[in-house]
Amino acid sequence: METVKPELSPVPIWRCRNSECKVWIREELASSASPECPMCKGAMMRGIKHLPKLVNKHKSARKPKSDADAWK
Q1: Distance between CA atoms of 15 and 52, rounded to whole angstroms?
Q2: Residue 61 binned pLDDT confidence (cut-offs 50, 70, 90)
């Protein structure tokens, strides 16, 4: 049986500067313009990874929630 490999594309990421920490985050999903590592709280630096494209499985016809609704 043949397996289909996903198409990869270069994706901007943030990765932890600590060589012992392997954490990385897609730039588009980062919490701020210069995030701190969510695991070790260290500094992060920009980089590139070749990753599969994200697929949005939810329909976008739904209205986005306001910030006030997010905490209900």
Answers
A1: 17
A2: low
Indicate the DSSP class of residue 68. Answer: H
3-state secondary structure of 34: coil
Ordered by start, the domain boundaries in the chain are 1-54
Stated pTM of the model: 0.65
Burial of 16 from C-beta contacts in 10 A (0-12 / 13-18 / 19+): buried
The whole-angstrom separation of Cα 15 and Cα 46 is 6
The answer to whether residues 52 and 58 touch, using CB atoms and an 8 Å cutoff, is: no
Q: How far apart are CA 56 and CA 72, in angstroms?
A: 24
